[in-house]
Structure formats: structure tokens, C-alpha cells
Amino acid sequence: MSARARTFAVLGIIFGGALAIISSTQTWLSVNLDAGATASLEVAGAKAFTVLAPLSLAALALGLALTVVGRVLRYVFGAVALAIGGALAIGAARIALDHPLDAVAASVTTATGLSGADAIAGLVVSVTATPWPWLTAVAGVLIVGGGALTIATSHRWRRSGRRFQTEGSGATPNQTIGSEPDLRESRPYDAIDSWDELSHGDDPTAR
User: Fold this and answer.
1) Do 146 and 194 fall within a single domain?
2) Which residue segment(s) compose the domain that 174 sits in?
């Protein structure tokens, strides 16, 4: 159960971060300008939601780091994932629902040379959203779920990078005293275990 929970938590954060970073390059909003403007504008996610790319990259890095850090940092990273996912979900949902002018102001200024809230409000006729803000909100929920699962279950995760025998435990018949036990014999072995070993210079295929 602990191996499965860790897998779901890590993959939820990584997948959510990857979906959000992809979304940052896609069109979020289409802006129709008044008759004096030459064309409508398409606003990418990174322009509409300026912290989208940094938060997405932070989620990706955090998800990868969870595979190797110790218990205390798992709780810290789980809390950070909650904050990142919440910010992504709330910010993206706001843009999807409200189509705020501040999300398109920079793009309108770049295209027309006009600035100021009143000037932009007078120039913009309508703003429509694509599905990408909603997909980003889903990505935020995935990151929140991964963070919550991390906090709830990380005390049962296998210790990363320090596979050693506790005091008073006996060596197995095929294990010499002082050698590291193979914990795969006592618990399910998953893909993240292989990642742990590779990150510390061990080749899991050599066993």
C-alpha cells in the first residue's frame, strides 16, 4: 500500500506539472478588438497567467525530488505541492470563468501600443476562453492531490538511499553480516524504487 501511495503521489505531482507547463504554451484566450484594430489576438497561457510556467516547473522538480528525499522533506514538499497546486487551480479557474482584462492587457499593449486599464477596456470588445485554463485547473488539482497523499502516507514510504539493516535484526541466509539487505524481498518493488537506486549509482538490473 505504501509503495502504491508513493507512486500515485509522485506521478500526480509530475503529471500535473507537465500538463501545466504544456498549457503555458497554448492559447488560453481569444480577444476580439474594436473595428479600429487590425485583428483579434490569441493570448498564450504564459501571458495570461504569468506565474504559470514557474509554478509548473517547480511542481515537476518537486515531484522528482520526492523520490529521493527523507521523511522530513517529504512533509515539506507535500505542503509546497499543496500551495503550488492550489495557486494553479484557483488562478486558472478565475481566468476560465471571468476572462479578466488583466490577463490580456500585456498582449493588447504589445499589439496596439495602448496601455492603461481604461484604454484597454475601451479597445477590447470580447474575450473568450479555450479549454486550456480548465485543463490547467485540473493539473492544479492533481498536484494538490499528490501533495495531500504525500503528507498522509509519507511516514510509510521506504527510506530512500539508505537501505540498511536495523539493530538486532538478523542477516538472511544469503546475506553476510554488515551487507545491505535487499528490501525488495519484503515489499513490492516499483518503478520509483529503481529510480532511487539509479539516483544513488546502483544498477537495479544487475541484481
Assistant:
1) no
2) 165-207
Task: Give residue 160's pLDDT.
Answer: 53
Query: Based on the structure, what is the number of domains in the chain?
Result: 2
The confidence score (pLDDT) of residue 170 equals: 46
Q: Residue 59 belongs to what H/E stretch?
A: helix 52-65
Last residue of a domain, one of 139, 157, 175: 157
CA atoms within 13 A on the CB side of 206: 5
pLDDT digits (tens, 9 = 90+) for 144-159: 999 999 999 888 887 6
Residues 124 and 171 in one domain: no
E strands, the chain, where?
Answer: 27-33, 41-44, 124-129
Instruction: Say if residue 105 is exposed, middle or buried (CB neighbours under 10 Å; 0-12, 13-18, 19+).
Output: buried
- Which range among 17-31, 66-80, 186-200 has the greatest average pLDDT? 17-31
What count of residues does the chain have? Answer: 207
In DSSP notation, 169-182 reads PPPPTT--TTSPP-
State whether 27 and 46 are in the same domain.
Answer: yes
Model pTM score: 0.73
d(CA 75, CA 16): 19
Residue type, 159: R
Whole-Å CA distances, 151 to 73, 87, 115, 171:
10, 18, 45, 33
The conformation of residue 35, written as its DSSP 8-state character, comes to T
* CB atoms inside a 10 Å sphere around CB 152: 12
Q: What is the rounded distance in angstroms from the CA atom of residue 16 to the CA atom of residue 141?
A: 8
